[in-house]
């Protein structure tokens, strides 16, 4: 559980990146490739300020996730990324005035319950994994 701060940082930077990308695409308006070189249009999109900032934030999120993966089990860390759905839905409701109806709220509740269950499964596993690793090393040395 000591890496939960890094996991939550990964989740929040992932969600922030999504919000920045949405803001960037809204500021660009509807995308049309008619009469425009697709490569030029793609470069315009990528280098628009909000989209570029969102992509950079994704890079930070991925670096954080890689750090987390070097410390905890994938089956523990990865499900936490679903909390990004929760954060995006809530912030999109307040920032972009997107719909947050009963079905979405129920889905968010299910995601939160599932994440809590997964978090509970990780309590104490770090110490157990560390002791298993050290036990395995000792047994190899003794042989």
UniProtKB/TrEMBL annotation:
Family matches, as Pfam families: EamA (PF00892)
Membrane spanning residue stretches: 41-69, 76-96, 102-119
Chief location category: membrane
One Gene Ontology cellular component: plasma membrane
Domain EamA intervals: 30-119
InterPro entries found in the cross-reference section: EamA_dom, EmrE-like, Small_drug/metabolite_transptr
Domain of life according to the entry: Bacteria
SUPFAM superfamilies, A to Z: Multidrug resistance efflux transporter EmrE (SSF103481)
GO molecular function, one term: transmembrane transporter activity
GO BP, sorted A to Z: lipid A biosynthetic process; lipopolysaccharide biosynthetic process
Name under which the protein is recorded: Drug/metabolite transporter (DMT)-like permease
Organism (species): Mesorhizobium sangaii
């Amino acid at each position: 559980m000591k890496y939960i701060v890094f996991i939550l940082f990964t989740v929040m930077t992932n969600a922030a990146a999504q919000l920045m990308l949405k803001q960037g695409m809204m500021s660009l308006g509807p995308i049309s490739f008619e009469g425009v070189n697709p490569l030029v249009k793609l470069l315009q999109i990528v280098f628009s300020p909000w989209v570029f900032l969102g992509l950079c934030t994704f890079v930070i999120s991925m670096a954080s996730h890689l750090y987390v993966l070097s410390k905890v089990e994938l089956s523990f860390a990865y499900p936490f990324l679903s909390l990004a759905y929760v954060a995006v839905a809530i912030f999109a409701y307040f920032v972009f005035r997107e719909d947050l109806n009963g079905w979405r709220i129920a889905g968010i509740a299910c995601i939160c319950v599932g994440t809590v269950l997964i978090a509970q499964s990780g309590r104490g596993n770090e110490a157990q994994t560390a002791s298993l690793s050290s036990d395995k090393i000792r047994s190899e040395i003794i042989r």
